[in-house]
Amino acid sequence: MSEKLSEKHFQAQVVELARLSGWLCYHTHDSRRSVAGFPDLVMVRAPRVVFAELKSQAGRIRPGQGQWLEALGGSESVEARLWRPSDWPEIEEALRRRQRGAVCASTTSPDADNLAKGA
Question: How many Å apart are CA 52 and CA 83, to the nearest integer?
Fold first, then answer.
């Protein structure tokens, strides 16, 4: 996947893959009236719920975004991810994987570089 992909086009590709893989997707199109930092996408395919913050390859995570990812990542019932275009193989695996009867926990960190690397 192109390292110069804009966040808008990257998001369109993630949403397309998610929908093709059976996920319901939500994105707030005008976030000016939303809580600062809330993740870009909420995706649901029972029993999983994934909150995803999407960034271009060079995009920086803002403090509010880091707070949301850290708080969601501490939950045992959802996954919280920071994805960049270079994470495409991980994104494909995460959205195509099916889990039966298990609730997924996240292993996120407030450190954006570690989040981007899937650490």
Answer: 7
- CATH number of the structural domain spanning residue 77: 3.40.1350.10
Residue 102: both structure tokens together: 């298990």
Q: Phi, psi at residue 72, to the nearest 5°?
A: -65, -40
Total tally of structural domains belonging to the chain? 1
Where do we find the tokens 């039966």? 100
Residue 25 CA neighbour count, 13 Å, CB half: 19
Count CB atoms within 10 A of the CB of residue 37.
17
| pTM of the predicted protein model | 0.79
In a domain, 111, yes or no: no
Which tens digits make up the pLDDT trace of 21-54? 999 999 998 888 889 999 999 999 999 999 999 9
- Please answer whether residues 82 and 116 qualify as being in contact, where contact means their C-beta atoms are separated by less than 8 angstroms: yes
